[in-house]
Amino acid sequence: MKDEVDQIILGLTKSFKAMQMYGMSHSSFLNFFEPFYQKLSTFLREHNELHLKIEKFKMIYAERDVYKEEEMDMSIAFRLFKDGIRSIGFQSGLTSDELLLFIDVISQPSKDWDVALGLWECNFTHVTFYVIETEEVLDYKVPDVPVEQIDYDEKLRQLLLKEKIDIDAIIIPDLNDREVENLKKCISDEEKSAILPIVIRTLSDYLRIERSEEIIDGLIEILETSVNMKDFYNARRISYKLKDYPDVDFIGRFENEVAIEGFREMLNVPEDERFNEFLAFLGFFRKKSIPYIIRLIPFVERTDRLNALRHRVAHIADNDAGPVAAFVTHENADIQLNAVQIIGIMKPAGMDKLFQPLLHHSDERIRMAIVDAISDVKHVELAAKYISDPSVEVRIKSLRILGKFKYPGIYTALLERIKRRDFLDLDFTEQREVFNNLTANRDSGVVQLMRNLLYKRKWFGHKKYRVMRRLAALALSQIDTDESREVLKLGAQMRNRDIKLACETVLKERST
Amino acid sequence: MNVYIAGKTVVGLLYPLCRAVQVYDINNNVVINTGQKLIEYTQDLFSAMASLDFVRYRDYIFFNKQRLKYEIDSYANLQFMNSLFKNLGIKSVSFSRGLTQAEIIQFANMLKEDRASFQKNIADRKYEHITVECLKQGEEQDEMFEDGQVAKRTYFKALKVTKNLMQNLWSGRPVDVKSSRRVIFSLVDSISRDEYGILALTTIKNFDEYTFNHSLNVGILSLALGQRIGLDRKNLARLGTAGLMHDIGKVEISRDLINKIQKLDDDEWETLKLHSNYGVREILKTRGLDEISMIAITVAYQHHWNYDGTGYPIRESDEEPTLFSKIVRICDSYDAMTTARGYQPVPYLPHFALRVIWSNQNRLFDPILAKVFTQLLGIYPVGSCLELDTGEVAVVMRQNPSTIDRPSVKIIIDRSKEKIDGRTIDLAAEKGVKIIRPTYPQLYGINPASYFL
Questions:
Q1: What is the mean pLDDT of residues B198-205?
Q2: CA nearest to B73, candidates B298, B372, B317
C-alpha cells in the first residue's frame, strides 16, 4: 500500500505541474493524468478511500509523510493549507471528471483564488475536504425581555383589522402535480435565462432616478463583457442607454484596429438577427473608427450584408466624406471599391473630385461603382468620361446618366461615335442609349441627321444597316415634332422595305 | 439503469409502505399492494445491481454511493427516510438480490418502532436479504453535537461578516469580499446538513442592530427555501449572497430614518424606498460585476416587487421579478414582520406572519413559493411560543416535515406559570397533547432565541 500511495502522490504532483504548464487539454497533461487516475481508482476500489491530512508543506497518509514541498508556489500542500483546508479525501466511485476538476481547482494561478471555495463550488460526490474556520467566541447574549402585558385578543383584533386576513383559513401547503411542474419549469427557466439583460435593465432603470458614476461604470463593464462575448443585443441596449450621457465615452474603447478586427467573425454569422444586432451596435461608433471598419468590409460574403454595412459606414461618417475618401487611393482594390460605394451612398458635395484619381482604374468594378455613385447626381462631365469606357456596362450606365441629366456637350462626341464603322458592331442596348442621348441632348439639326440616317442609300451591308434605320426611326419618334413625324410618315411610304418597316413599326408603336 | 433515478424511486416506494404499516395491519391489502409495487421495481433493479445500499451520512442519503438530492417532488420521501434513519440510529440499510415481499413488509413494520425496540429487534431478527448497520454509541452524539455547534458558529460568524460588511460600507472602508463568500459557503453547508438547526437561529432578533440580523436571517430563510425547492449548491450560494445583501442599500439612508420610532411621513417613506435602488450601487461598489453580484443586484432592486405587479421601484408591465427575488420577497417580509422595530415594538407572532404570507399569495407573494415556505416553517414556525392544553407553555424547537401542525416543542413554562427548563415533546408522536394557541413570549419575559443557543 505504501508504494501505491507514493505512486498516487507522484501522479498528483506531476499532473498538478503539467496542468499549470500546459492546461487540461494538452496531451502532456493527459499523459500524466490518465495513469494517475488509473492508480487512484485502483486504490479506491481496494481501500474505499484515500484520506490525506494536510499540513503547511506536507501531506500525510496513515501517519506517514507522503508529500513534502516547501517552495510555496510549487507546493500543493501549501495551496490547500493557506485556504484552511486540513484534509482531503477521495472516495471510491471517483470519476475522471471529478479528479480533473479537482486538479484544475488546485492549480489556479491567481493569488486571489480561494481553493476551498473553488472546491466547494464543485460540489464533488467523491471528493471531501475539511476546512477549518477561525473559532468565533460565541459572545452573543440574548437580550432580556421584560414581561409585558399584551392583550392577545385585542392585539389579534388590531392585526386582523390591519392585515385583513382570514385567521381561520385552512392551510394545506401541499403542491399538486401541476404546481410541482410549474416550479420545476420556473427553476429550469431561471437557470437557462441569462442574467445580463435583467441587470442591464436594472442599471438602466436606476439611471432614471439619478445619474451615478458607479452605475454608468457598471454598464460600461457589462458592455465590454457583452462585446467580448459577441453579444451585440445587450451591447446595443447598453449603448442606447449610455448615449444619453454625451460626456461618457463608452464606445472609445472599441474604436481601435484590434477591437474592430475582432468583429470579423460577425460579418458572416449564419443568423441574420445577430448580424443585424452587430450592425445596430456599430451605429454607435464614431468617424474615427471608419478606417478600421472599411478594412473589414471586403470579408463580407453576402451582398445584402455588404450593402447594409456600407450604409452603416455612411451613417457613421455623418456627411463627412473625409475619413472614407482617404481610402479612394488605397492600394487594395476591394477597399477602394468600398470607399467609392460608401461615398456614393453619402453623395457629398464635390464627390466627382474625390473620384478623379480613380477615373481610369483598371478594375471595372471601381469604374462601375463611380458611375453608380453618380447615377442620381448631376455629375455629367464625369459621366461623359465613361462613354468610351472599355466596359459596355459602364458605357451604358454613363449614357443613361447623360440622357437623364442632359449634357449637350456630349452631342458632337456622340455624332462622331455613330459615324464610326464599328458602331454597328455594338450591343443594341448601347446603340439605343447613344441615340437616346442624341435626342436628349439634341441641337436643331438632329431631325435632319436622323432623316439622313434613316433614308441613307445602302448598296452594300444594308442588312447590317437595318438597325441604324430602326434606331433613327425610334429617335425621330422620341423627338416627336411635326418635322420628325413628317419624316416618319414619308419613310413609311417609301419603297425601300427596310426604311418602310422601320417607320411603320415606330408609327404603329406610337399609335398603340 | 440510472442509479440516481433508481434510488429516488425506491425511496419513493418505501415511503408509502412505511406510512401504510403505520395505519394498517401488515396483512391488509393496502400494505400488501404497496409492498408488491416495491418488490416489482426492485426485481428489475436486481438484474443490474447486486444490492441496493442506502447510507445516511450527515443528513444526506446515499444510494449505491450516489447522493440523493432534496428535490421538490422527492423532498417528503427523502426527508422521511432521513428522519427515520436518524431517529432509529440507522447508519445504513442494504437490500440484496432475492428480497421478498414478506421481508420488506416486516422490515417496514419494524421501522415504526421506537429506537430502543428497533435496535434490539433488528439485532435479534436476521433477514436473509436485508442488512442493517446501526450507529455506534458515540458516533451519533458527536454528529448531533457537532451539527448544533457548527450551526451556531456559522450563524455568528455570518452575523459578524454581515455586520463588518455593512459597517465598512457605511464608513467607506474597503470590504472583505472573500469572507462574505466563505460565510455563504458555510451557511449553505449548514442548511444542507440540518436546515432546522440553523433556521432556529433566525429567531435571534436584535432591535438595536436590526439590519444586520435581518439581512442574515433573510439570507438563511432564503437558503432554506431555495434548498426546499431543489436548487443546487451553486444556485444556493447565489441566492444566499443575494439574501444577505438585499437590504444593503440601507447604508445610504440615514440611520435616524431607518431607526425612527414614529410613523414615517410621505417624504421619509419615499426616501426609505430608495434603498432598493441604492442597493444596486452598493453591490456594484462592493463586489464589482461577477455572476453572483449580478444576481444580488437584481434581488436588491426587485425585492419589493409584488407578485401582482405592484411594489417599488416602479417597473414596466413586462418586467417580472426573478425566482430569487420572489424567494427573498417572502423571506424578507416574514423576518420583518416577526422582528420588533421602532414603529413595531411588538412583532407579529411567527404563525400570524406566516398566515399573512399565506393570505397574500397571488397578491404580494408567489403562490407556489408561499406554499413551500409554509411547508418549510410549518404552521407554528420554530421559535413560536405555544399554549398547550396541559396548561404549560412551550417553544417550538423543530418541525416535523410530515405533520406540519405538530412540531417538536420544549416546555418552558409550567402549569403554575413558572419558567422551567422542561422536557421536549414531539407533538407528532404525543397526539394527546393539544395546542390551544400561539402566545406572546413577552407575556412571560421570554426570548425564544435563548433556547437555541
A1: 88
A2: B372
